[in-house]
Input
Amino acid sequence: ADVTLNLGYAAAEGSSYSILADKFEELTEKYSNGSIDVKVRCCTQLATEDEAFKSMQLGIVDMYIITNNNISPHFPLMDAFVLPYIFQSAEHTRKVIQGPVGEAFANKLQQDSGVHLLTFGHVGHRDFYNTERPINSFEDMAGIKVRVPKNEVMIKTFDAFGAAPLPLSWSDTPTALQTGTVQGADNGTSFIKSQKFYEFVPNLAILEHFSYFSPLFASSRAIGKLDDEQKKALFKAAQEAGEYQSTVMAKDIAETRAFLAENGMQVTYPDKAGFIAASLRVQDEVAAEKDDAFRTLISDIRAAAQ
Amino acid sequence: MNGPTAMALVFVFTMLIGVPIPFAAGLATVAGIWIADIPLTLLAQSAYTAFDAFPLTTIPMFVLAGALMEKGGMSEHLISIARRLVGAYKGGIGLVTVVSCMFFAALSGSGPATTAAIGSITIPAMLKENYKARFAGAITAAAGALGSMIPPSNLLIIYGLVAEQSIPRLFLAGIVPGLTLGVLLMLVTYLIARKNNYGGTGEPFSWRPLMGAIWEGKWAIGAPVLILGGIYAGIFTPSEAAAVAVFYALFVGLVIYRQLTVKDIFHAIRFTALMIGSVLFILGVTKAFGQLVTLYDIPESVSFLFGAFSEHPWLVLLLIAVFYIFVGMWLESIPQIIIFTAVFLPLVTSLGVDPILFGIFTVVACEVGFLTPPIGVNLFVASKIARTSVEQVSIGVLPMLIPYFVVIVLLVFFEDWVLFLPNLAFGISSH
Amino acid sequence: MLRKYLALIENHFEEVICGLCLTLMAGCIMTQVLLRFLFSSAAPWAEELAVYCMIYAVYIGASMAIKERAHIRILLLVNRFPKNIRLVSILLADILWLGFLVLMIIQTSIYMQLLFSTTFISPGLGIDQKWLQLVVPISLVLMVLRMAQVYYRWWHNDNQELPL
Ligand code: NA
Ligand code: NA
Output
């Protein structure tokens, strides 16, 4: 191969990130006729999610898949996608990220930071699990000590839900749940399975309150190593790998939830109306604190739902 | 010239002409980055991000807690209990050192911190009884490594993060191997002391003085109960336990034993600052070192090589142990665990090895790295306290490595003795 | 009088900063534990501040370790050299070490330029990371100064010892 690109991610091998990374590797090598060699490095071997974005700005890391809320410190506009219930349906999501809103967002990100956003990847949702009680209604959430990432929007959201959000680093979370330091947390369903939370957390509520996606980025230095043909191959491979990941993950989610139900979790589908109403207030509150670009993005996202 | 060779040459050359070890590692990293053709700003970024992780704060906090416990009389009480238990035998203070380190390991998560806290009292005592400085330093370094084996443990926390395994489960699994290691270390200490006719002047064992010492030292023995109890009761997380230990040490030293002065506190802080400035500092350069190991595909090639023996899982484990010990000579334990767990864990679990067992195995093998030059943090700490050279302690520590090898072999061939406790507490895990 | 104060600062500068950082660090973590245990409430800034304190303590502590000659060297080979060669070896080692520090100062400056031209907000405290990460280049400069001081004193005392 003429060019070697190192692609990293933080999650374990076999996670949804590896589905995207491995497919991207396969397609890039195929479309570039073997002139690009992609080397996939899992498990923070290349960098952690916290440092990967700056590493790409410096050109130290070629490519990386970073969970979207970890982009916010480097590109605050990303916080718009962290807002609760910002996407109203799968159709709405698709229209936003594959349409003009997503494209303009990627362009602005590249202009401001020098990092290329190649695909948004699969858009998944966080579900809520806890050791206290099954969540059937908005009221059931009251007072539960919830682990949240150190993210202002997420803290505000659980405050608005009536819970008691406690920011805790991910590393301490499994222990904290087992010992009762916190009583609940939220994650993507596949993650709840891979972390074996069903072993000791009895309640799962399909709340789908936060969206997350696994955007694939490339540094300017890495893109600069490619000729026009190779660039085209790379962009095409990224697009298709993202779509492939979405298809696989969408199929997986029903199976995963069934698995969790069989393995001791009581799965509930609470009425989301109260949660959505509280979330809209959070959205407005956050928007009021931010700049015009942020407010424009939010109204663009909302407009795409019409 | 290929990257790894160049890095090794630069490291060995600069270290031998007298460049301090963290900076020799830094110069080697510069060579590696230059050959890998990535921007040197990697060094600048990792100089900061290497420390940007909350669980790392346990290291300075446990060092500080150790220094306060030493100055405030807690370590003395622990040692006094140990003295009444084993003080009458040949190598009495050596045995006391090992037993005290085992006690201390139950409140500290860090090997170097345990070495510092116990060694600063028992090493001078051993020197007074005419132990060779290198032996005194070696016992403390080897027993101090128990600090990361007997829970709580920094290294098990790091492994748990990378391997996505339950940290309380790992902690429980660490207890029996940790105690076994301690007993074996006592055996080796006794044999060496008998050969060299060291010590053995303590009073013979009897219950009454022991009970007296235990009563006197109740606040010191109370610390592990508080710290482990607090973790298991969910009051604080393992990463927060070290800071709780600091306040407990302050409380006992100021209010109960009333031995701690403002000057002592200042000295403890100063000691901690020097320790992290000269020892923890090395993480800032070995972080980039670790990334280079990945970029040069060393993990994959090694894993591929070992996978060839997949018909004999025990052989793969033994090879990994040898490899870990070799790598541990050069790499600090934390980056070592992060880089190679990601590589070896999928391999060994596919061979049917339990991930919790592999965690204990990894930590024991990496602990040997604390004890092998050129980069062996416990050696650095012990040689500083014993006022002898790192080289001398490195020689003295060689026989103390035997217990580590024995435990590694036990881990490779038997698993129930490790998994029994966590399975009892949490039920059999569904892997 | 002023001289005396300057000497005091010169002697204890690193110690005081490290001491403050370590104290603040322990205090932050304990605050977090107490807030959560007693009031079920959170202090998202506490954990982050504790980490920053540690980073400051490590780098300023490294400078202190130069002043106290506490950095660990392997002198196995060097001590076997004849006296003149021993001095040359240590001088060469220290020049290489100094070179590394200077290179690090250059690289961290480039990195700081990136931090000053782009965004990097810390998630808990909400402050810009550039102010926090400045500690690395600053303490590197401090390390160079401390090295110069060690050599200045060695030269003026003109004693037979190695400048270790
Ligand atoms: Na321990
Ligand atoms: Na070592």
About this structure: Chain C has one domain: 2-156.
